[in-house]
Amino acid sequence: MSSLDDLKTRAHELRERLEGQLASASDPGALQAVRDRFLGRKAGEITALFKDLGKLAAEARKEAGEALNQLKEFGEARIGDAEASLARRLRESRLSSERIDVTLPGRARPAGGKHPLTLVREEVEDVFIGMGFDIFDGPEVDDDFHCFEALNMPADHPARDMQDTFYLEGLPPRLLRTHTSTGQIRSMLANEDPPGVRVLCPGRVFRRDDDITHSPMFHQFEGLVVNEGITLGDLMGTLEAFIHALFGKEYPVRFRPSYFPYTEPSVEVDMGCSTCKGRRTGCRVCKQTGWVEILGSGMVHPAVFESVNARLGKVVYDPRKVSGFAFGTGIERVAMIKYGISDIRLFYESDVRFLEQFS
Ligand SMILES: [Zn+2]
């Protein structure tokens, strides 16, 4: 038979152990283990004490029962408190670890800018689109017919010497185009509404040159207008409007006779020097003339129309009825004049200190 004192001693000891184990339970799993060990319905140590009540003498049971109930309430309260305080600590630590410091500086995203040659090409395209031109995109790998022969430069023509290029192995023979004038031929051949043509052909071109003023790859744009009744006056008005749109109306424009195999007559187009503003004494950029050459142009040579007709197998562009003008220049040249750049190699060196001035 257990005595009341014995039961009270065990209750006291249980209370001490419960306190000790609660103090070292630092996670939800450990707390649940303490709860099971002391208050579990079947195997809890406090629960077990209640079973010993029946072994006490009747007069001792009431006092023992009260002591055990106090112990049970104490255990539940302490474990409940411990659970609540652990949940609070876990929540606080999660909040502090997930906190966003809004005072930190933002992460800068590096932003690129457009290359000056792209800027100039887009600006030139915009001007001509505004004048009703379509943009015509031709292949960089082309053939002798489109690059030379159809442009009135047969195999023995001396003008080919100035445009030596890169030839690709294999048949049919292929080459890298030396000028965007290939676009003249291709746009006339592809024309769905002949004989009217009004296209601008920008793109990369290639030549076997590599020195301080020549790059084996550079950029051009070529323009072509064909229809009945097109005159040299249309050429002059169009190119003057283009130069004024790109550089400003204050620049004078002049036309000089010249020679290209695929135009007749041929005309070089100069504009007032943007560096010295056309002072009478000039400057180094304009070689003391006050003028810089900006475009080559001319009236389409009848032989060019004949070549296209021959390829089409019918007379679509009859030189007695239709006429046209063509023009072209290097995008690098226009960019150098526009931005006052003196060395063509700057465009290809990918030096950010140079490029970032344009973005
Ligand atoms: Zn000048």
Write the layout of secondary structure elements.
Elements: H1 4-24, H2 28-39, H3 45-51, H4 58-97, H5 116-130, E1 134-135, E2 141-142, H6 144-147, E3 167-168, E4 174-176, H7 182-190, E5 197-206, E6 217-228, H8 232-247, E7 253-260, E8 263-272, E9 291-300, H9 302-312, E10 322-330, H10 331-339, H11 352-355
The structure holds zinc ion.
What descriptors fit this protein?
three-stranded antiparallel β-sheet; BirA Bifunctional Protein, domain 2; alpha+beta; 11 helices; binds zinc ion; 359 residues; 10 strands; seven-stranded mixed β-sheet; 2 domains; 41% helix
Provide a brief overview of the structure:
It is built from eleven helices and ten strands. It has 359 residues and is an alpha+beta fold. It starts with a helix and ends with a helix.
